[in-house]
Amino acid sequence: MPVRAKLVAANWKMNGSQSENERWLATFRSAPPHCETVVCPPFVYLAQVAQGLERTQAGIGAQNLCLQVAGAWTGEVAGEMLIDLGAQWVIVGHSERRAAYGETDEIVAAKAERAIAAGLRPIVCIGETLEQREGGRTQQVVMAQLDAILRRCSVAQLANGALAYEPVWAIGTGRTATPQQAQQVHATIRARLAGADQASAAATRVLYGGSVKPGNAAELFSQPDIDGGLIGGASLVANDFLAICAAAR
Ligand code: PGA
Q: What is the pLDDT of residue 2?
């Protein structure tokens, strides 16, 4: 089995300001992490963050993209524009976009396909709600989300990006999935990928997201099918993000 290098991505969500970002970037540059990292600021700060991380190994990612390539789509941002600003990555299908902006499994899959066509590496998010978990439907929901993606994207294409398993009930709640709970779903995800393309499945990073903190990262990342994390709240504090990255070594 190929060794998958750990990947830790910072999802800043709708946070930051030019001055706060400068301080974050200065801290990050003072102790650049040894694992692969991606920083995903809001669209408007992509250029600032790309410039601030220029001499580091860190990747730059956006948090969303438009399904269209260009034209009369007021307020939208195309994948090609993200590349133009220095991004290599893009988060697709985050549960906040699914819940608040009506992104269905089909839209998320189409956005992953669009990201790949634009030349971006997608971090595609899947995960169940608390109600779905308590109703015993975790597996069914996560597999339906994954199958929608696999109808439009090959496993090899996903291996160039990443999947992120983010149980919705663990996001921003301080309630993390136990390493065993997460590992169980990650293993199911990898098995499904392997059903389509075994070699690419073994190379695909499946990140865990949902209240990852410096104190719980190492145990989560030590699970065999957890290949890093997608970090929200804790990524806003540069030193916490660096501590999480250190746990991925
Ligand atoms: P959290 O968010 O780390 O704040 O729980 C994770 C995410 O939403 O990607």
A: 56
Pocket test for ligand 1, best of 125, 168, 212 (most atoms within 8 A of CB): 212
User: What is the mean pLDDT for each group of 10 consecutive residues in the chain (249 residues)?
Assistant: 86 98 98 96 98 97 98 98 98 98 98 98 97 96 98 98 97 92 98 98 98 97 98 98 96
Give the residue numbers spanning the domain of 191.
7-248
Note if the pTM is more than 0.90. Answer: yes
Whole-number Å distance between alpha carbons of 80 and 118: 6
Virtual torsion, Cα 136, 141, 142, 144, nearest 10 deg: 140
Q: Which pLDDT does position 174 carry in this prediction?
A: 87
Domain count within the chain? 1
Nearest-CA residue for atom 7 of ligand 1: 232
Residue 1 resides in a domain: no
DSSP designation for 223:
S
- Tell me whether residue 2 is in a domain: no
Residue 12: which CATH number?
A: 3.20.20.70
**Distance from Cα 72 to the centre of ligand 1, integer Å:** 32
Backbone angles phi, psi at 20, to 5 degrees: -60, -40
The alpha-carbon radius of gyration of the chain (Å, integer) is 17
Task: Give domain status of residue 211, yes or no.
Answer: yes
Strand residues in 166-241 grouped as ranges (E): 206-209, 228-231
